[in-house]
Amino acid sequence: MVRQQRVSMKIFVTGLRGFPDVPGGVERHCEELYPRIAAKGHEVVAAVRAPYQTYDGERWRGVAFVSLDCPTSTRFEAITHTFKAMLAARRHKPDIVHIHAIGPSLLAPLGRFLGMRIVSTHHGHDYNREKWGGFAKRMLKLGEWLGCKFSNRVIVISESIRNVLAEKHGCERTTVIPNGVTVRARVSTTDYLERLGVEPGGYVLAVSRLVPEKGLHDLIEAFEHAPEGMKLVIAGDSDHDSEYKRKLVETAEQNERIIMPGYVRGNDLAELYSHARLFVLPSYHEGLPIVALEAMSYGLPLLLSDIVPNKDVGLPERHYYPVGDADALATHMKRMLGEVHEEGAFEEMVRTKYDWDVIAGRTEQVYREVAGV
């Protein structure tokens, strides 16, 4: 019997700012996913936003880039770029156009009008973020509805999102494919820690954008009750300057126990994960938090707010506290800092549920079903 060769596809990707090393959950997702899709023999073209794309090559790990200019205002950036990307996609004649996030999904009807097959990924209910005003929230909700109505298939990153879409929009063309994580061995180096002035095992770690919905103000308030000698490292930055970011930075500058090094990547970030005493994610809004999965992959004990997307990670109840309750966060944090934790307790969960190679295979299968190949 002759084995039939699998047909390769052309995939056009939009809805992201860019990669590699561009901050953001969607960006991290695409950075891990699409080189794996390309390695399966498919042609992958990613439309990236010129103001954010730091990599100046035309191709990275098998993924080709189309760099398109766009405004950097929060209101018009995504919609303008996605509109240009849809026109560019038509010229490339892809088998699949994959739109990431509900804002860019506003253009799903345009893609279908232009005769393209659309897959969209719902990464989270972005209209719940505090930074959006009333008009922007309405547009994001419209994008969610249009993505459900006009996409040939909707990928959702959690069961809770699938349930919401079914209840609100009657959306049944959904497939649950979570975010993933690459399991990495802990590093033994401490050069970066020494530059920051922290000791291995002597700090609590948060990795986050500096925006209100991440709840870092609650963490800073709760950390006032942390044991003496313990420090707090908040690794991350914000896409745009804001009053919230300035207040966080001012607070850190006035407290020698709080360190905010900005956006951290590569081996420096690996050091932070490898030697932290505890990882905390105090967010009010998430999709499925990649940073929590990364902390799990390094074998760290975790403490997360009890919002539904964080609960979707599947940790035991003792690893959650009531969102927005700084006093409860302080109590739980003090308890966990005083405990001896089993190293690598969640590694098997990460390997079986959140493996990027498995996720790439499941995404490829969605593409084949939609493209009919």
TrEMBL record:
Taxonomic superkingdom: Bacteria
Keyword Transferase set for record: yes
Molecular function GO labels: hexosyltransferase activity
Gene3D superfamilies: Glycogen Phosphorylase B
Domain Glycosyltransferase subfamily 4-like N-terminal: from-to ranges: 23-182
Keywords from the named record: Transferase
Keyword presence, Transferase: yes
Any matching Pfam family: Glyco_transf_4
Cross-referenced InterPro entries: Glyco_trans_1 (IPR001296), Glyco_trans_4-like_N (IPR028098), Glycosyltransferase_grp1 (IPR050194)
Domain Glycosyl transferase family: 203-337
Name used for this protein in its record: Glycosyl transferase family 1
Source organism of the structure: Oceanidesulfovibrio indonesiensis
